[in-house]
Design a protein that fits this description.
By secondary structure, this protein is an alpha+beta fold. 27% of the residues lie in helices and 20% in strands.
Length: 164
């Protein structure tokens, strides 16, 4: 007779019972600044800030504190699909509009630099025009529902999911 030596069998039997599907209104999974930075760095996405900092409570920094995992995945997927150089100039730091649910601060948005025409060309060629925002920014919508707003000096991108 074999002697039972621990909770392995119990865990194997109980584990399927502990799996719960997320609800539609569950809070999105978040990253710390460090974890998001590692993901971006590994994918070749870079970032910059006007004040050379990452403090999410300081205007002029570029922070990824509490950024949605889907936002990080979306920006990385965009870089891979577009083959553009992607430089993030805005994340979850203070200083962005706080109107609405899908904001920078709540982790849904990043700003991307338009140092080259690659982003403009890719977005305008591959995504559908979706009107104009109240501030005059031209809107484009990806096939997966993410919204790209062309502001004067950058793209303001809202990622609802981790796809392009």
């Amino acid at each position: 007779m074999r002697k039972w030596t621990g909770p392995t069998l119990l865990a194997a039997v109980a584990a399927p019972l502990l799996v719960v599907a997320p609800s539609a209104d569950a809070a999105p999974a978040k990253y710390t600044h460090s974890a998001a930075s590692q993901q971006f760095r590994a994918a070749g996405v870079s970032w910059t800030s006007s004040k050379n900092c990452s403090d999410w409570n300081r205007k002029g920094c570029t922070s990824f504190t509490n950024i949605n995992r889907a936002t990080v995945a979306g920006a990385i997927a965009f870089k891979k699909a577009s083959r553009c150089t992607v430089v993030i100039t805005g994340g979850t730091e203070v200083g962005h509009s706080t109107r609405g649910t899908y904001t920078h601060r709540s982790g849904y948005k990043v700003d991307m630099s338009v140092q080259t025409s690659c982003l403009d060309t890719y977005i305008m060629k591959h995504y559908k025009k979706a009107g104009t925002r109240g501030d005059g920014a031209r809107l484009y919508k990806s096939p997966n529902g993410n919204v790209y707003a062309r502001e004067k000096h950058h793209w303001d991108i809202t990622y609802y999911n981790g796809k392009v």
